[in-house]
Design brief:
Largest sheet: 4 strands, antiparallel
Helix content: 25-40%
Shape: globular
Number of helices: 3
Strand order of the largest sheet: 1-2-3-4
Distance between the termini: 48 Å
Length: about 110
């Protein structure tokens, strides 16, 4: 019972400190770039290196593996292509991400002095 009272007290303190008057603000996510680039097919999780190479060709750069000292930290290799990078754990794709491009992404706006 005491624990519930403490949690409830903390919740009221946080809500009271934050207040309800100011609307929440957040940065705009760079979704427009991703939506504009839906025409780019990316390698899928689980695909093998040779499958990726057959489908997308030779990468522009292959980075040396990082990690690999233990089963909990397997070697991760990155292959760079013109518009995306592919990350492999051993021989399998774990992730593929689009690269930043100035055409679609200009970065955050500078904060103006007020």
């Amino acid at each position: 019972m005491l624990r519930q009272a403490c949690v409830l007290s903390i919740a009221f303190f946080v809500v009271g400190t934050i207040g309800w008057a100011a609307p929440a603000q957040a940065d705009v996510l760079l979704i427009e770039r991703v939506e504009a680039r839906k025409d780019i097919e990316l390698p899928k999780r689980g695909e093998l290196k040779d499958q990726v190479e057959r489908k997308f060709g030779k990468p522009t750069q292959i980075h040396a593996p990082v990690g690999g000292g233990s089963p909990q930290h397997p070697p991760i290799t990155r292959w760079d292509y013109a518009e995306f990078s592919v990350y492999f754990e051993h021989n399998h794709v774990v992730s593929a991400v689009l690269k930043r491009t100035s055409k679609y992404e200009t970065g955050p706006k500078a904060v103006s002095g007020q």
